[in-house]
Amino acid sequence: MQKNWSPTVARQIGVPLTTNCNAAKSASNFSSTSESLKLREVCFADLKGLKAIEEKGKSLTPEKIHSIDASEPLVAGNSIAFTLGMDLTMKGRGRMNSPELCVYQLKDGKIISEEFFV
Fold it and tell me: What is the architecture, at CATH level 2, of domain 7-117?
C-alpha cells in the first residue's frame, strides 16, 4: 500500500493553520484547485479554486473581532481538524458567536479541501 501522506507534513501545515485562525489571517498552503465544501447551510454553495476561496474570505471580513480561538490541530492521515470559536460583529448581522469544526484534506503538501461544520 502506497502512503501518500505524511503526519509531519500535516502537522507542519496544521499548526500554522490554527495559528493563522487565532490571528484572524488566511492560510497560505492552499492548492490552486482547492475546494470549500458544505457552507451552503450558512451562506455559500460549494466553492472550487483558490480564487473563489479567497473571495469568500474577503466577503466574510468581520466589522469587529472580539475573539478567535482555535484548538490544537488533530492530525489523522491526510486530514487536519480543529475547533474554531469566533466572537464577531458582522456588518448587517450584528454580533455572533460561531463555534465550528474545521476539517482540511491534504495532498502533496497542500490543502485541497476545507469543510466546516457548525
Answer: Roll (3.10)
